[in-house]
Design goal:
The protein has helices spanning 14-28, 35-42, 46-58, 84-87; strands at residues 33-34, 62-64, 69-72. Strands 1-3-2 form a 3-stranded antiparallel beta sheet. It has 4 helices and 3 strands, in the order H-E-H-H-E-E-H. The chain is globular and about 40 Å long. By secondary structure, it is mainly alpha-helical. The chain has one domain (14-75): Winged helix-like DNA-binding domain superfamily/Winged helix DNA-binding domain (Arc Repressor Mutant, subunit A, Orthogonal Bundle), CATH 1.10.10.10.
Amino acid sequence: MEFLVPIVKFTVNPTERTLQVLEYVMAAGPGPLKQVDIARDCGLSPSTLNRIIKSLSDWGYLFRTSEKYVVRNFRLERNVPMSEVYLT
């Protein structure tokens, strides 16, 4: 699959990693997603992704259908796209 979510492989900020996962899951659609695919495509280790998935699941944003799959329980949309130039 090809997604329009920016892949930031060397990010150390946990908030940015969580937002990256949320955007990935939103862009992927409503069906179940393999956690291994999310980790690979977002450039995260499986253990890091597992911690993020646990937090999102505890807050009700994702459902774990098994140890391998998750399903989103949210909608996320940017109303106004902002360029890097605007934000700097």
